[in-house]
Design goal:
The protein is an alpha+beta fold and about 230 residues long. The protein has nine helices and four strands, in the order E-H-E-H-E-E-H-H-H-H-H-H-H. A four-stranded mixed beta sheet has the order 2-1-3-4, covered by helices on one side. The longest helix has about 30 residues. The radius of gyration is 18 Å and the shape is globular. The two termini are about 30 Å apart.
């Protein structure tokens, strides 16, 4: 059994989708990041960076339980455990990993900044909005050029690179992006969205998420609560 400690965010949905794609038995435990659950000693014991998601696999590589944090690392771990979605040859694996790193180091952080300054920042900063909206469009352009050549991000097979990237593109409108401006991304988006495991994955814990309007929740996510020494 795999226990996943998570919340219905793009990073959480990556792992929810992966678990569904792999068919592993799992239990989802909500970590309300607006309520501060990510700062509890119990969660920090398995996710020292106080970020969701994290997993505990009771049947680790040596038969002993293992805990994992960082969504990209979790995807690689689960792909290894399942023996799929990473690529079969060394070349395929490296292609998958470079596009996974593209998501981890660029697509996720930059789209997250676009979300923050367009939707959540306490003041509208024109420079920041323009900078991150333009960067979001640039990154969609990178994907569009790749997807003009290949069916999926890392080639013609669906992999963890697609699983990692798709949840971040679901809110393209909030990022200031018109998906029709990137026809190859739009084709890929529709293909990934139609997968039954993806539909099940994005539904995990989704009923718990509410619009972020509470000032205390905003402070927990973006304010001084983040920087308390623990």
């Amino acid at each position: 059994m795999i226990d996943v400690y998570s919340w219905p965010t793009p990073n959480g949905h990556k792992v929810h989708i992966m678990l569904e794609e792999c068919g592993f038995p799992y239990a989802a435990h909500p970590i309300n990041i607006g309520g501060g659950d990510q700062f509890t000693p119990e969660f920090l014991a398995i996710s020292p960076n106080n970020k969701i998601p994290a997993i505990v696999d009771s049947d680790g590589p040596d038969g002993e339980p293992i805990s994992m944090f960082e969504s990209g690392a979790i995807l690689i771990y689960l792909a290894g455990k399942a023996g799929k979605l990473l690529g079969k040859t060394d070349r395929e694996k490296f292609d998958t990993l470079q596009w996974l790193m593209f998501q981890m180091g660029g697509l996720g952080p930059m789209l997250g900044q676009a979300h923050h300054f367009r939707l959540y920042a306490p003041e509208k900063i024109a420079y920041a909005i323009e900078r991150y909206t333009n960067e979001a469009k640039r990154l969609y352009g990178v994907m569009d050029r790749q997807l003009a050549k290949t069916e999926y991000l890392a080639g013609d097979n669906y992999t963890i690179a697609d699983i990692a990237s798709f949840p971040w593109t679901r809110s393209y409108a909030n990022q200031g992006v018109a998906l029709e401006d990137f026809p190859h991304v739009q084709r890929w988006f529709n293909a990934v969205e139609s997968r039954p495991a993806v539909q099940r994955g994005v539904a995990v814990l989704a009923h718990l998420r509410k619009p972020l309007t509470d000032d205390k929740a905003k402070d927990t996510l973006f304010g001084s609560t983040q920087y308390i020494k623990r």
